[in-house]
Amino acid sequence: MHRLEIVAAHVSVSPAASASSPLSDREVMEQLQHLMDADNHDNRQRIFRIARQHRDLFTPRFNVALAAHRELAYRRLKTLCEGGVVSVWDFIRNPANVFTVHEAVGILGDPGTATKLTVQFNLFGGTLLQLGTDKHHGIIPDVDTFDQVGCFALTELGFGNNAVEMQTTATYDPHTDEFIINCPTPLSQKYWITNGAQHAHWCVVFAQLIIPSLSSESQGVHPFLVRIRHNDRRVCEGVTIEDMGFKIGNNGVDNAKLHFQDVRIPREHLLDRVSTVHKGGKFESTVQGRRQRFVIQADQLLSGRLCIASMMLGQTKLALTIAVRYSQSRLCVGPTGKSDTAIAEYQLQQQALMPLVAATYALTFFMTECKHKYAQLNALRQDKAAPKDQIDALRYEVLLLCCAIKPMMSWHAERTASICRERCGGQGYLACNLFGEAITGAHAGITAEGDNRVLWQKVAKELLDGVQKGWKNRKGLADTGAGEGPVRVSRLLAKREVMKGRALGASMLKTGGNSGQIFEVWMRQEARLVQELAEAFAEKRCFEAFADVVFDTKMRKLQPVLLPLLDLYGHMLLHKDAAWLVANSLLTPQEVGELPPEQDRLITQTGQHMGEYIEGFNVPKDLLFAPIAGDWVNYNDPKRPMHGELTV
Amino acid sequence: MHRLEIVAAHVSVSPAASASSPLSDREVMEQLQHLMDADNHDNRQRIFRIARQHRDLFTPRFNVALAAHRELAYRRLKTLCEGGVVSVWDFIRNPANVFTVHEAVGILGDPGTATKLTVQFNLFGGTLLQLGTDKHHGIIPDVDTFDQVGCFALTELGFGNNAVEMQTTATYDPHTDEFIINCPTPLSQKYWITNGAQHAHWCVVFAQLIIPSLSSESQGVHPFLVRIRHNDRRVCEGVTIEDMGFKIGNNGVDNAKLHFQDVRIPREHLLDRVSTVHKGGKFESTVQGRRQRFVIQADQLLSGRLCIASMMLGQTKLALTIAVRYSQSRLCVGPTGKSDTAIAEYQLQQQALMPLVAATYALTFFMTECKHKYAQLNALRQDKAAPKDQIDALRYEVLLLCCAIKPMMSWHAERTASICRERCGGQGYLACNLFGEAITGAHAGITAEGDNRVLWQKVAKELLDGVQKGWKNRKGLADTGAGEGPVRVSRLLAKREVMKGRALGASMLKTGGNSGQIFEVWMRQEARLVQELAEAFAEKRCFEAFADVVFDTKMRKLQPVLLPLLDLYGHMLLHKDAAWLVANSLLTPQEVGELPPEQDRLITQTGQHMGEYIEGFNVPKDLLFAPIAGDWVNYNDPKRPMHGELTV
């Protein structure tokens, strides 16, 4: 088998000459890193320690056969699990850790490992924990160690964005007290099932629950725990598993199509937190209505979106770290025509990279807010005394946040990876420099756990519903002590959201609640506004999360470092939607004209400290496997002793 | 060896119900296809015929080992060459064909084959033809049949965008009447050399020409024909060839690092159209100055940019064809909640895809103009009677066009592939549906034959120089009989270019011609404006090329079909730069506000004929290897007889 092994270069890159910054103070840098790392700092470092201890295993490999690629991702995750870095119980004890682990694994640069992680712990383990009851929790210790591998079968070939219409059935048989699982059509095959093609023993199968004695109609989609492989990995009877084959990326993941034919499972394998089927066929549910039941059952997709966003954040920090370090060491034409000037000093390079850096800072703080809101919600749910309307309000906000940040973060990850690739030129095109996996990893994030555009439809819908219910999604910035500039940006962003929301609301009102008309207007007339409203919400919340940190009085030492980035981010947001803002009299043409030069000024100001801002991401230098992040000249020396590794 | 074979589905997709269009008239459609295919129609079809005759060979394969992947690309190109679809002599006899072949090979969906093609015929063959003299042309017949394979070694590890500073030397030895080729440092390795790692027998090596009896200084960069492999593929003495390894895409291409140590070649192997070294060391050159000599020697990069743009155009047409056909057959939630509505009918899908379709039409016509201008220039150069100032003026325009269209087209190809992938969801993520190769293929295009951003610096520089020399780059639209709307857009685009040009010119004037100051302003203060000026030029020319076709009186039947696309494209261009246009009083805020609804109207109008517009691309249905472009339900049927091919 041919392979290309990557050797980490341990040589540090000397930063471009630059004016001094508060970040050259070690203490300030450490404070920044601590802030950016958000929570579970020790555990994050533990993950990196494990990767160091198993350096060979975690070294990226390319041009490996599919089976070997999957074995690599499996072993990487198994090694992390054996290190005890995460548990399914964290959803109750320490939810933020679930997401932080995703980010740290994202930093390790293999989206395949991160994807297997998220299915095992969030979709499979999390569903077992939250939709199952005590009798289903027995295997959680083996899930934590990855000894029992699980998968999650919601999506069907024909039903991606309309899963409530799925066709797989679980029919109750009172004679044997079992459910019988069937996929009646090609369109009802379970599709894209991560961990399914090689490793999973268990599958949470979503199916239409049918109790013939009650009705031939479904009682709605419910989750069932189904064994699909024996412990020795033989596939169980009635289960057909087909490998999805080669993908544009993430080939460490063993995605499968699953097909069930008369697969019988004990009645107790219905995950029965929401609905119960009693012996003989009596049906009870705490939730009325098929669609509502589905929404509750698919709840784990919510935390799933935070998991995806977290791993996207990790891979974005990695990509930017690699690109900036190369930019600092790559010399090209200077004032005299000689190749003596680091490309990091070019305004072109700074204008490409610094906006991505600023957005990554903003999204880091937005991520922190989302994680903590999610954790708060989980804590509230454990609290028997918590008032229902408080839970409902928080659940509403968490729903909005999860559906807002995943699209924003995954698109940002795609743009970042793609632009970093481009700005590193040919070097960026070599697989060993890791932008390829970042681009295709981001693509997986864009349509995983809900197509980004569909999630933004959800955000817009929830915002309109929320207005009707009188929910406020956030207070605004004015009272946080923020400076005039950010307060103004925040006001503009809030106003934009309200105006776009009102415009969409007015269009929807005209439908008179007629469902055909609602479809017509929502899907065929106002698609642009629907997306814009969600974007306005997401960007406003992200900006405010960033501003909250910058103006936190405990952050005084960091303020001079963070404020120009916040300022830059605010200008970027306004500039991006300047056409709408000026057309709606929120900015004057003159103000619009002042945005680009002001951005340029901020980019030049922050760009000279590019390397220090990247250090804030705290990506361990010794785990930067990309040769261009280190001494790439030596790496390319034909006389270098370890040279043979490059040949394939 | 594991592999995934793709089976073409021959089943046609029924278009979404739609109002009738002039394009349902067979004759109109054929006229459109003929127009879009531009030139060399028979040869284009011959390429598709060869692919059909060698269907197995041209069927995309994934998860193949690197060596096998390269063998595939090699055999595909060899088969096309044996079919006689292109000759190096076409640069003189029929230049448009060189580019058309690139587009058609792009449509076949393997960027690796297209890349090997462009190096063999343009960079290697073309340089041999145009910089060599009769004595070098003997091997051209074997280059045409791909029996003798060539490569082109300009780029060095340390000198990508500053190749004039390269370090490889060719030193004349009067005792043996030979040149001695040397790479003195790791940075001077020839890097990224396509065809180098496995197949090339010959290499055009660019090196600093040193004639010790004249000077220890270089006489400038010159091209030398160097044998690097014997006919049996053994590597020649003194040549070290290292495989570049796995890349993020284009893995059918055998890229190499080449290192030369004391490699001796006959004096006659200097390609001596520009400079000659006589026996004993007398040096003559038709061009004065090192940098100017380099520019002339690297001339083949100009046509190379049209080659890259052409293959990008082909892959873009393919990606859109696949995405639209899937959109027409993929059913999702409809007015009643059932999955009964093709996603092509969603405004969301139309708003994602139709702007790409409109831009692809525009770029097709822009491409046609560029090809024909290039052909005109080559014809003029053959014509001994042609006046020098006419050649100079045309060369100036061709230079601008080549440096403008390659960036525009390759970025468009990247965005198209990426958005098509996203809008096809999970299906788009399967390698067999071909968006992965399209994304990474586009990335190769973005930095090949000149980094896009560097080329746009070149465009801006040439535009400023041209203004000083009094060159006009084009007449404008007003006198073409175009309607009021397009004339207005064209005027705005022309005005924008002039204003941005003036602003940049004014900044540069302030430098007083001081070279340090020029660098400071160009590279560190006005980088945004430099890029914007080039973009303004490129977009103006592209829009005008489109408008010229639409208002060509011979195109009357097509006008109702093309005009709304032109209109949409014009609105897109204005909207993209609305912030600048409104800040500079070229649009009022109200006019800016009218752009999005008007775009939406045009998208809805054209979107209902999405399928017909795609048919205009004339991508052969039986060569659409992506399963989702055909009957993907049957392809996924677990009971399908040929099912076994999917397993890996």
UniProtKB/TrEMBL annotation, chains A, B:
One GO CC term on file = peroxisome
Q: Where in the cell is it found?
A: Peroxisome
Outline the extent of the Acyl-CoA oxidase C-terminal domain: 514-628
Q: Where does FAD bind?
A: 155
Using the record's annotation, list all stretches that form the Acyl-CoA oxidase/dehydrogenase middle domain: 151-263
Residue numbers annotated as active site: 449 (proton acceptor)
Q: Which GO terms describe its molecular function?
A: acyl-CoA oxidase activity; FAD binding; fatty acid binding
Q: Read off the SUPFAM superfamilies from this record.
A: Acyl-CoA dehydrogenase C-terminal domain-like (SSF47203), Acyl-CoA dehydrogenase NM domain-like (SSF56645)
Asked whether the UniProt record includes Oxidoreductase among its keywords, one would answer yes
The protein's superkingdom reads Eukaryota
Chief location of this protein within or outside the cell: other
User: Per its record, how is this protein called by name?
Assistant: Acyl-coenzyme A oxidase
